[in-house]
Model the fold of this input.
Amino acid sequence: MNKIKLLSISVLMNLASAAFSQNNVVDEIAWIIGNEIILKSEVEEQRIRMQMEGEQINNDPYCQIPEQIALTKLFLDQAKIDSIDVDDKNVNSQVDMRLNYMVSQIGSKDKLAEYFMKDYEEIREDMKEMVRTQQIVQQVQNKIVGSVKSTPAEIRRFVNKLPEDSLPNVPNQVEVQILTVEPFITKQAIEEVKDKLRDFQKRIEDGSTSFSTLAIFYSEDTESAKRGGELGFMGRGQLVKEYADVAFSMYEPGKISKIVESEFGFHLIQLIERQDEKVNTRHILLKPKANLEDMNNAKARIDSIAKIIEDKTMTFEQCVTLYSTDKNTRNCSGILTNMQTGTAKHEMQELPQEVGRAVYSLNEGEVSKPFLMVDRSGRTVYCIAKLKSKVKAHKANMSDDFSLLKQLYENHKKQEKLNNWIAKKQKETYIHIDDNWKNCDFQHKGWIKKD
Done:
């Protein structure tokens, strides 16, 4: 090691020691990467944040976390070389979403500040720096990996070389079709909801009650109600059209909309802040309810449809087209889409609970008895379900699971490119790990260099 490098390392250690002695905080340097240091406190703070956000820590956190930080520093160094940066607006949007989630989990901003032993604004600035770093690292990785293409022959060769126990397990999966009958909602029920929202609007405007208080007590969007109705920054595509059209027409913070109807019910919207293509709003959601007579009428309709299918007067698919009130499934023969994967295949636990119970004991092609459920819009509806197909748990194979194995192969190629880049960067970078932090089974083996 030359004298210049020794001097720079000494300066780093002295600066860190001085900084923490001034604050009477006991800390230590765990790693040095180039001219950057990783402090014990930095590792500990990240461990707490990961625990708060429910992020999985697979190994010893005092091995896994400093290695992740070290990798980040390698990618950030490359970002400087390549002049890679990110948009502040995207960073702020992601920060707001994460903080909203954390506050909803712990209960309040004050409790979050107490948990991290920092002011809320300080937490926000730390989160902003972390998210900015993550987005920069992602861009660097994308540039390193580039585009990865694959052919069926390459995928087959890759799969043939894998030990059988390395092949993914594909769990039991089902494809389900659904026919929905929504009870009729009377004009009186709708007007009662609108009158209640008009009363809320009046109380907010005369200052007798705040929007957030009313949202907490009355909004039927239970998740946002915990945050006083606040949704966080969202783009148009993240909101239903009717809501987005109104929210994006508002420019004055604190402004309250007229009553807005969507598939979820009736909303009162308040603008909190606008950032170009994203808005942060609060809302109060109320849903008109069907009365007992309307529920009984819907039950009679679904029973008569079930009889038509049972008598084979019409097929299930024909009845879906003619009678189903769910626009999301009516035009695709009732196929229920998995919202997580975008495909028609579901594991049983991924189905709505009531649908899962209805099809659990069915064979392929069989139709359930009518049942009551709450749909994704929060409406109580009557349904009939058909089990279109059932796939037993198995090891992934080329015939049935080509898309899954294609993704597995391409991810393998991407990771291979990243690993090669990391190994090269490790050789080019000065790395020192304190003896107390060396006893680890690191994912990448080039951290500890032989003298």
In short: The chain is about 50% helix and 15% strand. The two ends are 10 Å apart (CA to CA). Residues 1-25 have pLDDT under 50 and may be disordered. Residues 126 and 165 are 42 Å apart (CA to CA).
